[in-house]
Design goal:
Layout lengths: L11 H5 L3 H10 L14 H8 L15
Length: 66
């Protein structure tokens, strides 16, 4: 069986509302396993670069909100 990986981001508003634990519980309840976690703060340039390939595809709103 092939191993699949995915990447997720917990947005700043969820961190401020102390939802990280609840989000992890939902991930694990779905049968997924968190194998790594890292908390970072992106500046505007980093956020723009990260989302550049998705700009205009996913939402009518700006994808970055610093």
């Amino acid at each position: 069986m092939a191993i699949e990986r995915t990447f997720s981001i917990i947005k700043p508003d969820a961190v401020k509302r102390n939802l990280i634990g609840a989000i992890y519980q939902r991930i694990e309840a779905a049968g997924l396993r968190v194998v790594g976690a890292k908390m970072v703060h992106l500046n505007e340039e980093q956020a723009s670069g990260f989302y550049a390939e998705h700009e205009g595809k996913l939402s009518s709103r700006p994808l970055k909100n610093l």
